[in-house]
Fold Prepilin-type N-terminal cleavage/methylation domain-containing protein.
Amino acid sequence: MNDKGFTLIEVVVATVLLVIVLVPVFSLVTQSYIHVRMADDYNKAAFYMQERAEEIKVAEFDSIEDEPDKSFGQYVLREDITDQEEDDETGDVLIKKVVLSMKKDGRNLGQYQFYVYRGGY
């Protein structure tokens, strides 16, 4: 009997064991990459919405109005600003509701809602 090499059965068994170990590892790496990309998308969306919210909060109350959708590369920021309460005597708007939402490739990445009051937020 010659002991210089591996038999065909030993090579096949070793290959099967290697595949059984490596397939789940590659799957885990792929899923981790997908989750990292999604987390990056959510972080960017939160950043862009927070940036726009700060711009609205420091703006003059009467100048706060809907703006057209803004694009940041693949991200699209939509804002919806509605009057919530008016002064009964003067008819002036006292409260505005601001809803900011962010999408990327048609996928909703989040929404940020707050109120702006005449004289402060």
In short: The CA atoms of residues 74 and 113 lie 22 Å apart. The mean pLDDT is 91.
